[in-house]
Amino acid sequence: MAAYDTSASEPLETRSPVTVAARLDEPLSRWLWLVKWLLAIPHYIILWVLSVVYVVLSLVAMIAIVFTGRYPRGIFELNVGILRWSWRVAYYSYGALGTDRYPPFTLDEVPDYPATLDIAYPQTLSRGAALVKWWLLAIPQYLVIGVFVGDYRVAGWPGVGLIGLLAVIAGVALAVTGRYLPELFDLIIGLDRWVLRVVAYASLMTDRYPPFRLDQGGREPSRDTGVPGVW
To answer: Where are the transmembrane segments (predicted)?
Structure first.
């Protein structure tokens, strides 16, 4: 992605395969956040349909991985596009409330949008792990992100979880003070980043197990050691 410094000098094995970043898009309206649940309904409807497509294609990908050790490239790009779309909607709405810019209706990457997502395509994947990642290996992570999002769906971060609660607190603070508290923003984006890493792993897009670590802030750490990246 163009938003980050991922130079060739950085060892490939140290990079996270899931790159999640966000830029606080100030100034923000004091009151628009109150009706974003309504404004985002067209997106929620489309993402609900796409979530069904996502699950079906993930099952197809699982079968392909078991037999070939590879995630079909076309399915991978489509599923990444669905996640990318859901992340933009979540960022606009109650997954962060970090922008007033309405999310575009597209699966494609939109580099100038203040919330971006990319997942590195894996050249090979474990055939055996593909059978147990999503229902067994990821269970500890599900227990964690279930608290974050309120349930286990992705589109728009539905449910009343920690992320939604913190986003509403950020909205109230915005209404009162006219500004988004930066410490709260960093925490919310860190929680969102954790969720997306788990989703990518459970969707068989990577063999890299998500770390039990909260990488806060809008900039994706450039290494698994937590060194900040460059927006």
So the answer is: 41-67, 131-149, 155-176
C-beta of residue 145 within 8 angstroms of C-beta of residue 195 = yes
Say how many domains are in the chain. Answer: 1
Compute, in degrees rounded to 10, the torsion defined by CA atoms 49, 55, 60, 64.
140
- Tracing tokens 């294609």 back to the chain, one arrives at 57
Distance (Å, rounded) from C-alpha 73 to C-alpha 77? Answer: 6
Rounded Cα distance, 8 and 169, in Å: 41
Query: What domain range is 96 assigned to?
Result: 15-202
Within a domain: residue 219?
no
Q: Which spans in the chain are helix H?
A: 36-39, 41-68, 73-92, 139-149, 162-177, 182-202
Alpha helices in 118-207 (DSSP H): 139-149, 162-177, 182-202
**Is residue 141 a part of any domain in this protein?**
yes
Residue 224 lies in a domain: no
The answer to whether residue 218 is domain-embedded is: no
List per-residue pLDDT tens for the chain, 231 residues long: 333 333 333 444 557 899 999 999 999 999 999 999 999 999 999 999 999 999 999 999 999 999 999 999 999 999 999 999 999 999 999 999 999 999 999 999 999 999 999 999 999 999 999 999 999 999 999 999 999 998 644 444 455 799 999 999 999 999 999 999 999 999 999 999 999 999 999 999 999 999 999 999 999 886 544 444 434
145, 194 contact by CB (below 8 A) = yes
